[in-house]
Automatic annotation (TrEMBL):
Main location per the UniProt record: membrane
GO MF, one example: energy transducer activity
Highest rank taxon of the organism: Bacteria
Places the protein is found: Cell inner membrane
Pfam families: TonB_C (PF03544)
Membrane topology: Single-pass membrane protein
InterPro entries from the UniProt entry: TonB, TonB-dependent_transducer, TonB/TolA_C, TonB_C, TPR-like_helical_dom_sf
Protein name: Protein TonB
Alphabetic keyword roster: Cell inner membrane, Cell membrane, Membrane, Protein transport, Signal, Signal-anchor, Transmembrane, Transmembrane helix, Transport
Matches recorded under Gene3D superfamilies: 3.30.1150.10, Tetratricopeptide repeat domain (1.25.40.10)
The species this protein was found in: Pseudoalteromonas ruthenica
Domain TonB C-terminal residue range list: 268-358
Signal peptide per UniProt: 1-21
Similarity-based family: Belongs to the TonB family.
């Protein structure tokens, strides 16, 4: 959705009075058409975004607002990895500088590069300043819905960038956004689902399990009541509820969500299944004293309710105590059961637990 909006924004800019005297050339048209096609297919998007940016730079000049949009597209096309962070930040800053220098520019046009800077800058102060400025612009332009959306985006950025100690500010942003959404938009919207999921994760991390359960159940109910298709957010909500109910000792409630997940996500053939809830094995004290490491391979049955049964040790290394610890841990795990012909059935799976010190 973000790429699509930037794409449309660039097309509008190409015909705007902001444009330089230079007109689009066949070379640029071809490069931009290739970028649009890459967006559609999902193939080589970064490569074509870079080409469109470079051709646009030579066509329109380095002060053109069209180049600013092309720089944003190019930065957005890069994977948000540490190796790309500096280049992405440079592109977003270039776009911001260009747009700031345009006469009679729309202040809202600064929000995309500001949020891009927040996602890629290497200093906490720069991240915080960019987010706050974007929110202030939306406030000044009297766009309350955009203010709420930016607060959610800003909170997500703070949560992802764990080196920045902004967790408290992020929660304030989320609570303020939720209050606006509750008053002005419907529950069955992407915005409401997203903020509810994020606040549920916050409650879970803070040990507020009952509140987290309420929030994730709200998400599940939104999908059950309004949509006939499966969605990753619904799957994630069910997964969170499995763990939360198990932590509360409510295995029967957890089972309902194990089964719901199984209906949404069929078992993959010849692949270890991922537990929905797992407790780590206790490292045997004798092995700790001896500084001994090892591993245990097990096979077991996941029954129709997602419980583990019939555990057998296939192989192990290090100590018999590792086997006991591994079996005791896996007994408490929960899985999504396998479905066959629309019925939950027992199925075998396997796992290896590694015991390592340090």
């Amino acid at each position: 959705m973000l790429k699509k909006s930037l794409n449309i924004g660039l097309l509008a800019l190409l015909g705007s009075p902001w444009m330089s005297a230079a007109a689009p050339t066949p070379d640029f048209d071809a490069a931009y058409d290739a970028f649009e096609q890459a967006l559609h297919t999902g193939e080589n998007v970064q490569q074509h975004a870079q080409t469109a940016y470079e051709v646009g730079l030579s066509t329109f000049g380095e002060t053109s607002p069209a180049v600013a949009k092309l720089a944003i597209n190019y930065a957005n096309a890069m994977a948000p990895s540490p190796t790309n962070a500096q280049r992405r930040a440079t592109l977003y800053k270039q776009a911001l500088t260009i747009l700031e220098q345009q006469p009679n520019s729309d202040p809202l046009s600064l929000i995309d590069p500001l949020m891009g800077i927040a996602k890629s800058a290497d200093k906490a102060h720069t991240v915080e300043k960019a987010i706050e400025r974007a929110i202030d612009i939306a406030k000044q332009q009297q766009k309350p819905k955009l203010v709420a959306d930016l607060k959610v985006d800003g909170a997500e950025i703070y949560f992802r960038r764990l080196d920045f100690d902004k967790g408290r500010a992020a929660v304030v942003y989320l609570n303020e956004a939720e209050a606006y959404y509750q008053a002005h938009i419907a529950d069955d919207t992407v915005e409401m689902i997203n903020v509810t999921m994020l606040l549920g994760a916050v409650d879970k991390a803070r040990g507020r399990r009952h509140t987290a359960i309420e929030r994730f159940n709200k998400v599940v109910n939104i999908f059950d009541d309004n949509f006939s298709f499966d969605h990753p957010a619904e799957l994630q909500a069910h997964s969170q509820l499995v763990a939360l109910y198990e932590q509360e000792g409510e295995s029967e409630q957890a089972t309902k969500h194990c089964v719901a997940i199984a209906k949404m996500r069929p078992w993959a053939k010849n692949q270890e299944q991922t537990p929905l809830y797992r407790t780590p094995p206790r490292y045997p004290a004798i092995a700790v004293r001896q500084r001994r490491e090892g591993w245990v391979q097990m096979e077991f049955t996941v029954n129709e309710s997602g419980f583990v049964e019939d555990i057998s040790v296939l192989d192990s290394d290090g100590s018999a105590a590792f086997e006991r610890a591994a079996v005791n841990a896996v007994k408490q795990w929960r899985y999504a059961p396998k479905f066959k012909n629309n019925q939950a059935v027992k199925a075998k799976t396997s796992v290896q637990l590694d015991f390592k010190i340090g």
